[in-house]
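SECTION: protein entry
WANTED: fold as tokens:
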Amino acid sequence: MTETSDSELVSTRQRRIAQLAKQMPEKGLTSLNQHLDLAWLREAYRRTRKDGAVGIDGQTAADYEKDLEGNLRSLLERAKSGRYFAPPVRRVHIPKASSPDQTRPIGIPTLEDKVLQRAVLMLLEPIYEQDFHSGSYGFRPGRGAHQALEQLWKNTMNTDGGWVLEVDISKFFDTLDHAHLREFVSRRVRDGVLLRLIGKWLNAGVMEAGQVSYPEAGSPQGGVISPVLANVYLHYVLDQWFVRDVQPRLKGRAYVVRYADDCAPEMACTR
């Protein structure tokens, strides 16, 4: 297939997934991995950054493209059969955009891991874009800081006085509870292949200074899949609670605008 036909095929399938998710808002979707084929992986590879930092294997896009079709076929077979091994991410520390004197840890997956994570993200986004609340702006397609600020201004102008409360969740990505996250994801995703892959990424481990550790919590910043998993977590523990419990008590005079102000270079964050 050509690049254009791969993109059109993926877009058509994503619209079908979104329509199904919208029609069944309380149901878990099965058989999602049927869309995960060679054309889907080719499109995932096209959407993957080629100039990003390399993972623990040192493989570059140029290396991978020497036998792109063969490598993607192998990746697809391993992902579907359960033989895919999620390698540890390479951890580096970079200055925070909001506080240059502080650093935050970034996990850099291997190129192949980025491609597969991108492929799974392309399956998850159409589902969760039907679920996420309007006040969520971080790491979502077509949304970013400018839209969040505009909505914050509109909400402020629409209230007759009140408070603006700014809250920062410290080390959020590093402290995600794996058990809770798996349970949240399984409410909408009942596909065994996808759930197994997500579980492997959560348990993949982190390599730093030549040593591999296996944190019991968190999803490394820098991973392509991490932002959507973080949004799923916050959707259930924060956004739904606010819309269900807080807004009714305040008669609709309370609003939430949620945005991630620190975006790792590998993250799908629109700024």
